[in-house]
Fold:
Amino acid sequence: MNTLRLLFAAAALVLAAWSARAEPPKIRVGYAVVPANLFPLLADTPGVAHHLGQTYTLDLNRFAGTPQQMAGFAAGEIDMGSFSFSTLAIAIENAGLEDARIVNDILDDGAHGANSNELMVLKDGPIHAVEDLRGKVFATIGAGGSSDMAMRLMLRRHDMDDKTALTYVEVGFPNMKAVLLDHKVDIITAVTPFSQDKELRAAARTLFRQADVLGPTPLLMMAARAGFIAKNRAAMVDLFEDELRAVRWYTDPANHEAAIALVARFTKRPADSYEDWAFTKTGDQYRDSDGLPDMAQVQAGIDLLLQFGTIKSTLDAAKYADLSLVKEAAARLDGH
Structure:
């Protein structure tokens, strides 16, 4: 009888171990806009997600913008999120996220001759220069977003108080065109794909671009918390390998037509909304094929936040980065 009990106990242990191996870790990923972020497209892109469903699974969570993602990240609702340098720095200082780590670069604004976010006004409206913004209404994705930061810095450079010169109204990226054309706001943040909307471009013009005030910046970087990285390192490397494979596939001109079709199907927008600009060198923003952010630019952005009093003390960007995972993933793809 004792022998039988031992056999049953051993079998239960084996079954439990097999069950644990059979359930790959779930990674809860936040995002705001596709195709800026390619993580939501992994499952639908042929031949890129070699490890999805095998060594990891994805739980995709859509947010209005980076500030909203950061709130979810701080609350433990997502394991990884895509953040601008400004959102991340503000959260580290204000929310005490000392264990936040930059792990992957997603999109860079105005880098290497690529496109930049646009701050747009109506062509037939009263705003012709930055000085004309005084007393107007700005549609922002949220305080701490990179475009919000660009607006505030531009106002200060023109001797205006960024807290009082404008009225700030939070609006999601998909709704920016509507609130501008309906004269509910005077200036909007236009990011791809919404900045390329033909109706918007016919009625509006660019007052300035984000890169005009911030210079080239890491627009979106993926961040995770140190404890999650330590627990799920192997799965994250596999995820980044798949994501880098997707980046290289989508930015390959030979795949342009198929890439546009996949994006259009996912977003439920016409293909001609994307075909002239998405994944091109000058129409789209820049994607690093190795997923590595320019940490000098990240530090420069953080130093600018300190200069303008957005954060109260300097932060060492390198302290809040762990790029070893994405470097390992890129090395696999390159056969090193």
Remarks:
- The domain at 25-111+217-333 is CATH 3.40.190.10 (D-Maltodextrin-Binding Protein; domain 2).
- The chain has a mean pLDDT of 91.
- The radius of gyration is 22 Å.
- DSSP finds twelve helices and ten strands in the chain.
